[in-house]
Amino acid sequence: MKKKRIVKAVVLSALVLFMSGLAWAQQGDAPSDNMQIVREKIQADKKLLVASNMNLTENEAKAFWSVYDSYQKDLMALNERAFKNIGDYAANADKMTDDIAKKVVNEYLAIESDRQKLRQSYLPKFAKVLPYRKVMRYYQLENKIMAVINYDAARQIPLVD
Q1: What does the pLDDT read at residue 39?
Q2: Which of 121, 153, 137, 111 is nearest to 56 (CA)?
Q3: Which of 10, 78, 83, 131 could make an S-S bridge to 49, C-beta 3.0–4.6 Å?
Q4: Which stretches of the chain drop beneath a pLDDT of 50?
Q5: Stretch (H or E) spanning 128
Q6: Contact status, residue 81 vs residue 111, Cβ threshold 8 Å
Q7: In 25-40, which positions are buried (b, 16+ CB within 10 angstroms) versus exposed (e)?
Q8: According to the model, what pLDDT value does residue 35 have?
Q9: Taking the domains of the chain in order of start, what are their residue ranges?
Q10: Are the beta carbons of 78 and 114 closer than 8 angstroms?
Q11: What contacts 118, CB < 8 A, 6 or more positions away?
Q12: Whole-prediction pTM value?
């Protein structure tokens, strides 16, 4: 029971920080050092969430965390592209043209395609260091985190006129 409360608290704090960062990215006026602090806090909270839910043995943990860190670094690059794309949308929302909309939509689809390719490319790496049941659990955690972030972003980003 206590573990579930910790998990919820970590997810909520990560989401608050994520959305704060998203709002800053949309406004375009956040100092880069503040964004770095937000990123580091999100990464630390996410790692805590994963650690508290993976039930890794000591040997599994030794091998898992280096793969996890590498994956997160690659994932962060995609997230940076997504933030930039959202910023492009926000900067043009009141004067959206078909050309800008096409660019934003194409970049969104490219990011999602690259996100899927990244997940697929890391599957054998995770499977090398963990039993498949734990690999599946990790992918479920990533999916749940992304679903909550996507839901919150969808609530905050208005439809184009």
Answers
A1: 72
A2: 137
A3: 10
A4: 2, 5-13, 16-17, 19-27
A5: helix 98-129
A6: yes
A7: bbeeeeeeeebeebbe
A8: 65
A9: 2-156
A10: yes
A11: 71, 74, 75, 78
A12: 0.77
| Interatomic CA distance for residues 71 and 68, integer angstroms | 5
17 in Cβ contact with 40 (< 8 Å): no
Tell me what pLDDT residue 20 has.
Answer: 45
- Please give the backbone phi and psi of residue 57, each rounded to the nearest 5 degrees, phi first: -75, 170
Angle at 38 between CA 1 and CA 147, to 5 degrees: 55
Separation between Cα atoms, residue 14 and residue 120, nearest integer Å: 25
How far is the C-alpha of 131 from the C-alpha of 93, rounded, in Å? 46
**Tell me, what amino acid is at 15?**
L
One-letter amino acid for residue 37 of the chain:
I
Structure tokens at 37: 């602090």
Nearest to 143 by CA among 50, 81, 41: 50
Count of Cβ atoms closer than 10 Å to residue 69 Cβ: 12
Query: So what's the pLDDT on residue 17?
Result: 47
Amino acid at residue number 91: A
Instruction: Look at residues 14, 17, 20, 39 and name the one whose alpha carbon lies nearest to residue 141.
Output: 14
| pLDDT on residue 56 | 97
